[in-house]
Amino acid sequence: MIWFFNKKKKEEQATEAASEQVADNAADVTPAGEVTPDELQGAAEEVAAEITEEATEENIAAEASQVDAPAPAQTPAPLMEKPDTKQGWFARLKSGLSLSSGKLAGGIADIFTKRKLDQNALDELEELLITADLGPATAAKLTAAIAKNRFDKEVTGEEIRTALADEIEKILTPVEKPLFTIDAKPFVILMVGVNGTGKTTTIGKLGQQFTREGKKVMLAAGDTFRAAAVAQLKVWGERIGCPVMAKDEGADAAALAYEALDRAEAEGADILMMDTAGRLQNKANLMEELSKIVRVIRKKNAAAPHAIVLVLDATVGQNAHSQLELFKEMVAITGLIVTKLDGTAKGGVLVSLAERFQMPVHAIGIGEGIDDLRPFAAADYARAIVGLDAASD
Ligand SMILES: Nc1nc2c(ncn2[C@@H]2O[C@H](COP(=O)(O)OP(=O)(O)O)[C@@H](O)[C@H]2O)c(=O)[nH]1
Ligand SMILES: [Mg+2]
């Protein structure tokens, strides 16, 4: 398991992460060189408005069903002990991504049956990439890269898949970043994202894996909006055997965060992971709540939270872009975890996110089992999503 980076590389990566953060912030302020704060505000409101619409159409039903559903706390995912070999993991990744790769590989096979790489074929390839959720910009970039040196030549589907995997790997490699880029105790991780994306489950899975690695983990049930969400995290805590800081439903999440950090420091925890609410219906409240949590944590420890991880659900496809934009306006996201890649043909969205935002991807979820959450590996992902086997290295 490679959640903790190589000690030798620590300083280098910390500096890199810090400069990335600065670059990221700078990009936020001047995305096109000459954007005024007012325009930026306008853009943020537009994104927010877009999200509200999408929230109304896509997410509210899901959220409502969560509220009404019996507490998921009662039925956390079963523990699945699986062989921890690279090959075993790749096989699961490949099968998890089979809906996505089936779409891509099938489409490529249809386009390139003993055919020259002419303009028609390229247009069809570009269209296929767009329908596989790689997004128009990434699709155009990939298609251009494939055309280079191959235009008007006889190609096979297999060659195209391999070339595509190589190009996708180039896009993904810069975002393959470990979750821990600085040395801190406790290392404080704030988990944010829309309701239902997998925040609580991901905290549970990570907590279990860190505990197995001998780390002392503490959890904080910061989604104080729903009693079921608190109960769900408590069940994970019991399973992991780690303390869970929680307050009653409706309690102030920032106060809870402060107390949790206090206790984590006092008890010498290695990692403190905080859950948060993800109600999009009231964006102003959510923004206020998240920024207050961060402010309060900073007051206690200026370097914390060390990671603010946005959990994105791959099944929403391109809507993940709007979610990322919205949360970036709310808090200083430091990286992503993309979940539910197993249940969707939209795995290409991870590539378009990487290409557009260059935001670190720490881990991916390809199922509900503990071991179905893994550190993100660019080369593996690139090959699995076009249905190729692992690179032999
Ligand atoms: N298939 C699949 N389901 C997942 C994955 N990650 C989370 N889930 C499920 O998504 C649902 C919502 O997760 P939850 O952690 O409660 O979301 P939260 O509202 O963001 O905290 C749960 O049923 C999880 O088991 C994943 O990688 N694959
Ligand atoms: Mg939750």
Question: If you had to describe this structure to a student in words, what would you say it looks like?
Answer:
The chain has about 400 residues and is α/β, with parallel strands linked by helices. The protein folds into two domains: about 5-25 and about 45-80 and about 175-380, P-loop containing nucleotide triphosphate hydrolases (Rossmann fold, 3-Layer(aba) Sandwich); about 85-175, SRP54, nucleotide-binding domain (Four Helix Bundle (Hemerythrin (Met), subunit A), Up-down Bundle), CATH 1.20.120. About 50% of the residues lie in helices and about 10% in strands. The chain contains 14 helices and ten strands. The protein has helices at about 10-30, 35-70, 85-95, 100-110, 120-130, 135-145, 155-170, 200-210, 225-240, 255-265, 285-300, 320-330, 350-355, 380-385, and strands at about 115, 155, 185-190, 215-220, 245, 270-275, 305-315, 335-340, 360-365, 375. The chain has an eight-stranded mixed beta sheet with strand order 5-4-6-3-7-8-9-10, with helices on both faces. Strand 7, helix 12 and strand 8 (about 335-340) form a beta-alpha-beta unit. Helix 4 packs across helix 7. The longest helix is centred in the first third of the chain and has 32 residues, at about 35-70. The protein is elongated. The two termini are about 20 Å apart. The model is unreliable at about 5-35 and about 40-85 (pLDDT under 50). The structure holds guanosine-5'-diphosphate and magnesium ion (MG). Magnesium ion binds near residues 199, 200, 223 and 229.
